[in-house]
Design a protein that fits this description.
The chain is mainly α. It is built from six helices and two strands; from the N terminus they run αααβααβα.
Length: 148
Amino acid sequence: MKPVRTPCIGVCSTTSLGDRICRGCKRFSEEVIYWNTFTELQKQAVQARINLFTTQLMSNKFLIVSQPQLEQVLQDFRVFYDPDLSPLFWLHQLLQKHLYRLHSLDEIGVELLPAWRGQEVRDVLLRINEELQVLSEAHHERYFREGR
């Protein structure tokens, strides 16, 4: 089993703001704090959940037209991406960390789906992050609530 890298993108709100769910990587605060004590299987489970939720929400809003172009930009910006995870997950990480550096989605081989065209990418990303927060909160409530 290959080691699972931390999903941290350097935008942590659990340690800096005390959020229960990180605004950057979408891990629960316990997962951020205890990450280095987790087994590789536990880390894989966390990564799989975040990948699934993110991919589900991104697939309703974005289309990757050129995966090689997206990968090139990820490399140029030195954003780590795991080839075992969804390219939509990579895209989310890129937008989270480097949206301010992008002039258009065309330059990264991506476009908005028709229902979202005309929207600012920043606004679409904010919407996705709000939806990720709701999904994560529901998951946390169901599986990690105290007293269960």
